[in-house]
Design goal:
Number of helices: 11
InterPro entries: Thymidate_synth/dCMP_Mease (IPR045097), Thymidate_synth/dCMP_Mease_dom (IPR023451), Thymidate_synth/dCMP_Mease_sf (IPR036926), Thymidylate_synthase (IPR000398), Thymidylate_synthase_AS (IPR020940)
Pathway: Pyrimidine metabolism; dTTP biosynthesis
Radius of gyration: 20 Å
Enzyme class: transferase
Strand order of the largest sheet: 1-2-8-7-6-5
Family: Belongs to the thymidylate synthase family. Bacterial-type ThyA subfamily.
GO molecular function: thymidylate synthase activity
Shape: globular
């Protein structure tokens, strides 16, 4: 994963300071590309432990067209909690302590972080126990799963972009139209978080499937390692169903940034030496990409450096 570390160094050395939506501040570059040969190992970051189980459960959530955090929380996946939590604490139903700018404040104030953690625990418990509460506050709007599986058509029907893509790869592998987009201008304002990874194109050559992702906004320390693993996994899953080998994952970034409150963590990571990449193991019994469950996907030989914690910007 030298490609990823090179990106971090590039931002450190050439990035410009910019304000951002969260008020945290970033160091940013515009336009960057990484390439990963998927035949040489699964690109799961080794210079800090990355929770592969969370990558898998989030991708399966997308594949099922789900948009409610309840499914993720049931699988002990909390990577989307903050955006649903924000919806609750901004509503009239919320009666707890003031949560204004809770993400930024918690990063600077440990006492306040404890209060946020307590409220977040209450929120997750309510999501699991109360169907109406989950419906009101757990749904993130028409985010990735909705756009991939149920893009609204002008005639009132929906378009399953992912199913159509797989069918076209099987019958017309040389097409230059193997594309899925998550950026729907008509619905972007209804989403809790507009899609960061917005557009993907698949390419078949010499019996191998490659994927290029365009990501408009890239949180390089926290988000990008997950994005790399997620789209590498998606490429493997589609390749298996289409009886193809895997080729490359090409990751093209728009605004690639390091948050200012992640800089120390990046320095720690850059001092570490990358280790051998793990191997992806997919259940031989599953043929359709839509049939996979958590237990059907695993990795072997993953020996990362310890996890490095950092606050998320909401």
């Amino acid at each position: 994963m030298e490609q990823y570390l090179t990106l971090c160094k590039h931002i450190q050395e050439t990035g410009v300071m910019k304000g951002d939506r969260t008020g945290t501040g970033t160091k940013s570059v515009f336009g960057y590309q990484m390439r990963f040969d998927l035949s040489k190992g699964f690109p799961l970051l080794t210079t800090k432990k990355t929770a592969f189980r969370l990558v898998v459960s989030e991708l399966l959530w997308f594949l099922k067209g789900d948009t409610n955090v309840k499914t993720l929380i049931e699988n002990n996946n909390h990577i989307w909690d903050e955006w649903a939590f924000e919806k609750w604490v901004k509503s009239e139903s919320y009666q707890g302590p003031d949560m204004t700018n809770f993400g930024v404040r918690a990063a600077k104030d440990l006492a306040f972080k404890a209060i946020v953690d307590e409220q977040m625990e209450i929120f997750c418990s309510k999501i699991l126990a109360d169907e109406q509460f989950a419906s009101d506050f757990g749904d993130l709007g028409p985010v990735y799963g909705r756009q991939w599986r149920s893009w609204p058509a002008k005639d009132g029907a929906t378009i399953d972009q992912l199913q159509n893509l797989i069918e076209q790869i099987k019958v017309n592998p040389n097409s230059r139209r193997h594309i899925i987009t998550a950026w729907n201008p008509a619905e972007v304002d209804e989403m809790a978080l507009p899609p960061c990874h917005t557009f993907m194109q698949f390419y078949v050559a010499e019996g191998k499937l490659s994927c290029q992702l365009y990501q408009r906004s890239a949180d390089v320390f926290l988000g990008v390692p997950f994005n790399i693993a997620s789209y590498a996994l998606l490429t493997h899953l589609i390749a298996k169903e289409c009886h193809l080998e895997v080729g490359e994952f090409v990751h093209t970034l728009g605004d690639a940034h390091l948050y200012v409150n992640h800089m120390d963590q990046v320095e720690t990571q850059l001092k570490r030496t990358p280790r051998e990449l793990p191997t992806l193991i997919l259940s031989a019994e599953k043929e359709s990409i839509f049939d996979y469950e958590l237990e059907d996907i695993a990795i072997e030989g993953y020996d990362p450096h310890p996890r490095i914690k950092a606050p998320i910007a909401v």
